Amino acid sequence: MSRILIVEDELSIAELEKDYLELSGFKVEIANNGTEGLSRALSEDFDLLILDVMLPGVDGFEICRQVRETKDIPIIMVSAKKDDIDKIRGLGLGADDYVTKPFSPGELMARVKAHLARYDRLTSEAVPKNDILEIRGITIDKTSRRVTVNGVEKPFTVKEFDLLTFLAEHPNHVYTKDELFEQIWGMESMGDVATVTVHIKKIREKIEADTSNPQYIETIWGVGYRFKL
Ligand code: CA
Predict the structure, then answer these.
(1) Distance separating alpha carbons of residues 228 and 213, to the nearest angstrom
(2) Cα(39) to centroid of ligand 1, in Å?
(3) 1-24 burial string, b = 16+ CB within 10 Å, else e?
(4) Rg of the chain's alpha carbons, rounded to an integer?
(5) CB within 5 A of ion ligand 1: which residues?
(6) Is residue 171 helix, strand or coil?
(7) What's the CATH code, domain 3-126?
(8) Threshold 0.85, pTM exceeds
(9) Res. 181: pLDDT tops 70
(10) 3 has which bridge partners?
């Protein structure tokens, strides 16, 4: 749930804004002077600020400027004076939007929702996503190196994981055992291609419902293996 701070000294306006925002499912708190507003905006985790310009203590311009130095949350400024809007624009304070009093609660609500949606998109894009392959019930998470089969996690050794991932990333391509050995174990490795057969067998035991009739890794007799698309 998004948490919103309203910094507003006129209690009737603050309460009106709060009521509307709460009806839309937001968690809303009010600071009724600039000093409290600034300190809470800086020290607490809010998702959006609604900031009146004329405030006792620190004014809205200064709060906006200081918050913007450390936080990129949306800031909507509110003012009764047309001149203030020009100032907000001109000063480059980093406010995302502004509304003039009197405003309709619906107008403010629409802006709050639009800015929160945009901010959500930005922050969710910033979180790195795991690199995941999904093939008919099998999920291979390359980032966390975990494999689940129909939702159940299966333990994979390093080489089993590498071999399954390699095949799954190249579906419909037939590889010889020599090619797979070279790819996964490397040319310099000791061992022989029988290792590939053993690993394929172990992988099938983990991912196939019926190992005698494999649905994922097919044996191409006399050639090698292929991951079915
Ligand atoms: Ca005011």
Answers:
(1) 12
(2) 17
(3) ebebbbbbbeeebbeebbebbeee
(4) 29
(5) 9, 52, 54
(6) coil
(7) 3.40.50.2300
(8) no
(9) yes
(10) 27
**Helix/strand/coil (H, E, C) string of 101-144?**
CCCCHHHHHHHHHHHHHHHHHHHHHHCCCCCEEEECCEEEECCC
* DSSP 8-state assignment for residue 189: -
User: What is the structure's pLDDT at 44?
Assistant: 96
State the DSSP string of 145-163. TEEEETTEEE---HHHHHH
Number of C-alpha atoms within 13 angstroms, CB side, residue 213? 2
What are the extents of the domains in the chain?
A: 3-126, 132-227
132-227 under CATH 1.10.10.10, yes or no: yes
pLDDT confidence band for 190 (50 / 70 / 90): confident
Looking up tokens 């996690």 gives 153
Query: Under DSSP, is residue 67 helix (H, G, I), strand (E, B) or coil?
Result: helix
Ligand 1 centroid vs 101 CA: distance in angstroms?
A: 10
Order across the sheet with 174-176: list the strands.
174-176, 224-227, 217-220
